[in-house]
Amino acid sequence: MNTFDLLKPAPGLRVVVSGAASGIGAAIAEAFIQADAQVFICDVDASAVEQAKAAQPRLHASVADVANIGQVDAVIEDARRALGGLDLLVNNAGIAGPTGAVEDMDPAQWERTITTNLNSQFYFLRRAVPVLKETSDRAGIIAMASVAGRLGYAFRTPYAATKWAIVGLVKSLAVELGPSDIRVNAILPGVVEGERMNRVIAARAESLGITFDEMRDDYLKRISLRRMVTVDDIAAMTLFLASPAARNVTGQAISVDGNVEYL
């Protein structure tokens, strides 16, 4: 086998990606499709799911709110039937959550962020892990965390709390599932170009009383490479972690962020 072939996921890999009708999730799903994987996505946005299926007919997809345990159960069951099993779970779904001082935060927004970003990962894992054990000899789990899972993030405490928790979840599961030959890793994206980041910058700028451009420039100054990353950068790392080249990579929290120095 050519050494570089190890960098490609095996053809036919059966992959579930949550929150994948747009943004990072959509880029990951498309990357696996191009790598000849079988891909099942879910997303809470029904119109975005339909658009994704129309743009890429090879996708299997369903509409689901990942904060709803019953709907997550249905996603894994539907994926098992559609794909004939499961080799890789990409726990990607998440929301930005509220921006503001902790004493001013709406408890309902806090709870929604925790449920969507953290509890949802458990909901998927509790159903996906048995399927991985039963049907795969190349099983893996990739959790989407954030650079906010290794740095403090003022005024974004619910979001940061979930991302730190995801890193702990991954490191613990790597120990738990290692004897079953299931690899578990986290990807920590940095400042990702796109509309979602623009909304985050706008909210942070408003909370600090500065302009959008000033806030954007401030973000870039915190990155060693002085540039944002793209969704394709994240997708590329996901492909690597799913490839034979990463067969001994587990329990890792890997930043793809240009080295964000502080938040």
UniProtKB/TrEMBL annotation:
Record keywords: Oxidoreductase
Keyword hit for Secreted: no
Alphabetical list of SUPFAM superfamilies matching this protein: NAD(P)-binding Rossmann-fold domains
Gene3D superfamilies the UniProt entry points to: NAD(P)-binding Rossmann-like Domain (3.40.50.720)
Family annotation (Pfam families): adh_short_C2
GO molecular function: oxidoreductase activity, acting on the CH-OH group of donors, NAD or NADP as acceptor
Protein family according to the UniProt entry: Belongs to the short-chain dehydrogenases/reductases (SDR) family.
Protein name (database record): 3-ketoacyl-ACP reductase
Species for this entry: Caballeronia concitans
